[in-house]
Amino acid sequence: MKNIVFNRRVFLPLLFALTLANANYSHSQGAEVSENINDSVSVAPVPEKTLSDKLDELSDVLKEKNSELGALKTKIAKSDADPELEAEITRASQELDILRKSFEQLAIGNINLDSVRIEEPNLTWQEELTLAVKPLLENLRGLTEGPRKRENLRQAMANQKNIAEKAEKALASIEVLLAGEASKSQQNQLEVLKSKWQRTKENAEREEQLALYQLESLSGSKSDWFTTLKESTIDFFQERGLTIALAITVSFLIWLILAGISKLLDKTGKSTSKYSNRTTYRVIAYAQRLLTVILIVIGVLTVFFIRGDILLLVITLTLLFAAALGLKNLLPQFLAESRLLLNIGAVREHEQIVIDGVPWRVASINMFSKFTNPEIQGTLRLPLSELKDLKSRPITEEKWFPSSRGDWVLDSADTLYEVIKQTPLVVELQSAQGTNKLVPTSTYFSAEFVNLTKSKRIRITSTFGVGYELQSIALDEVPKVFQESVSEHLKNASLGTDQIDVRVEFAKAGESSLDYIVIAQLGSNASKYFYRIERTIQQACVDACNQKGWGIPFPQLTVHHQPV
């Protein structure tokens, strides 16, 4: 009879473990079969028995455990407090509770007892607040639930195996002592210890077998994994997938309706002159876009609420809350940029603005605004965020740029250049000798370039001297002769202009010569012949001296220029 009881103690809990595994099988995740979790653990096959046979065996064991527990309680009631008896009562109560659960589980079939024995806890207001995001947290935790359960079961198997091995060693040591020469009282104590360690070993083996059955049930098989995946996919498209599809459909319909309204407004705006640039139209346009976003959000939340999908509803609300926090920090910048977009800010369309020292016309204000300059090839594009510190003003008659393409300019070193190209980045110049030079546009605008082409007239001065032997005619005849000669030579030089005005004046009496200043004023069309004009003036003065036989002292030559 003792052997029968021992077998029931070992195998009936195993039957209970198998039943629990089957009850929780529908909640397990697919994975490959874990056939050899631990090579040192060998699983004894459970004999095939009917449900009635299993319930009969569990019923018999429950009676025996009840009798055993009653005897222990009677014994401890007649004696003083005994820690060993109290431990025995606790152990027997736990085993009896497990057997009752086993009997109940077999009787109710494939129903998870843990899922129907949930008591409503007393929660604080902080804990109640977390219930709003509980579905989200549970789904996130479910992603790692399978691996965590399998790892816990493997650790439990390893721990129970270690306990069983230690119990086996303890029993071997006790058997050696019992086989030796020991007194009767000593043998009684050894028998008690042997019974204790035997139960420890049996409990460890039982727990190990239970963990192994749960692990195998959790792992499942390949065919079960495919079935589970198929069923999960079908469930998704029938439940949550359908909810997402409805939300997308509602969002598209809302966008389509409001986009149609926007198209009608655009057609109305095109029929009005410059209507698209008016502030009123812009306010309506941006309000329509904002309304579209708000209605789409409301539509999505409504679909989730009607469908009862709390997870998607919580995720959407969480994203909206995060977006609201982000907008709170960006609100000042958002308001400033909104004023610019509505054309009521410090920078307005079709006005003049100075960027890096260069004036520009505000062509359009948008997320990337465009700026133009009549004298510059190409457009300048800047993000809206860079306009918040700038200001524009109404366009006046001021010049947009110091030069135009094809103009001739002089730098601070009196080097003559032709303007080849002007872009938002650089200005390309070509000297009279044919060499090219690139100057940043902002630098060129602020540099001391003299535009000869844009001047009404250009003025070139040149100094020429004659000897002191002409002192008697130095104030009347000499200036007249030089003036006639220079005028004639300039007219014959084909300088591209008929506006030629020459004046010669006595400048000073130098150390070795009587110096005269020759002032020539010509039309701006002759600006590209600037160097030739200087040379022509000197040639004319030398030619006049040769014709009159006047001497030219040395040194005596200095050239000056000044545009008008």
Detailed description of the structure:
The chain has 564 residues and is α+β, with helices and mostly antiparallel strands. The protein has 5 domains: 208 residues, no CATH class; 103 residues; 33 residues, no CATH class; 44 residues; 105 residues, Alpha-Beta Plaits (2-Layer Sandwich). It contains 14 helices and 14 strands. It has a 5-stranded antiparallel sheet. Strands 9-8-7-6-10 form a 5-stranded antiparallel sheet. Strand 7 and strand 8 form a beta hairpin. The radius of gyration is 52 Å and the shape is elongated. The termini are far apart.
Keywords:
single chain, alpha+beta, 5-stranded antiparallel β-sheet, 564 residues, 5 domains, 14 strands, elongated
Quickly describe the structure.
The protein has 564 residues and is of the alpha+beta class. It contains 14 helices and 14 strands.
Topology readout:
Layout: H1 2-23, H2 51-78, H3 83-108, H4 125-130, H5 134-142, H6 145-179, H7 184-219, H8 222-238, H9 240-270, H10 279-307, H11 310-341, E1 352-355, E2 358-364, E3 368-372, E4 380-383, E5 392-393, E6 408-410, E7 416-422, E8 426-431, E9 436-440, H12 441-446, E10 450-451, E11 457-466, H13 477-491, E12 500-509, E13 514-523, H14 530-548, E14 558-561
Antiparallel strand pairs: 1-2, 1-5, 2-3, 3-4, 6-7, 6-10, 7-8, 8-9, 11-13, 11-14, 12-13
Helix pairs in contact: 1-2, 1-3, 1-7, 2-3, 6-7, 8-9, 9-10, 10-11, 13-14
